[in-house]
């Protein structure tokens, strides 16, 4: 996937709404394809740009939205290639669509 960096300074961009975060996660996971995962930072960068000041603050909101999407059955959160309990996981994780989606 080719990402065009946003020239708008990170601090002047409006904060994305949870619906925007969810739509971006689902779009990127869908583009990646069945059985393949995305890194949550890919979704953060798609919305916040390539500079860490833009995407870094989106990492916790992305995690919160990913947990919601998993509980709704729309994504699977994985760690070390295995699905995790959305209420009890730590560390590096990845996102994918459920099998058959």
Topology readout:
Blueprint lengths: L17 H15 L7 H9 L3 H4 L3 H13 L4 E4 L2 E2 L10 E3 L5
Antiparallel strand pairs: 1-2, 1-3
Helix pairs in contact: 1-2, 1-4
Describe what this molecule looks like in 3D.
With 101 residues, the protein is mainly alpha-helical. The chain has a single domain (16-96), classed as Winged helix-like DNA-binding domain superfamily/Winged helix DNA-binding domain (Arc Repressor Mutant, subunit A). Helices cover 41% and strands 9% of the residues. It has four helices and three strands; from the N terminus they run ααααβββ. The protein has helices spanning 18-32, 40-48, 52-55, 59-71; strands at 76-79, 82-83, 94-96. The protein has a three-stranded antiparallel β-sheet. α1 (18-32) packs across α4 (59-71). The protein is globular, with a radius of gyration of 13 Å. It starts with 17 loop residues before the first helix and ends in a 5-residue tail after the last strand. The mean pLDDT is 89.
Mean pLDDT: 89
What's the CATH architecture name? Answer: Orthogonal Bundle
In total, how many beta strands? 3
Tell me the name of the CATH homologous superfamily: Winged helix-like DNA-binding domain superfamily/Winged helix DNA-binding domain
Q: What gross morphology would you assign?
A: globular
Uncertain runs with pLDDT below 50, 5 residues or more?
none
CATH topology: Arc Repressor Mutant, subunit A
Using brief descriptors, characterize the structure shown.
three-stranded antiparallel sheet, mainly alpha, 101 residues, Arc Repressor Mutant, subunit A, 4 helices
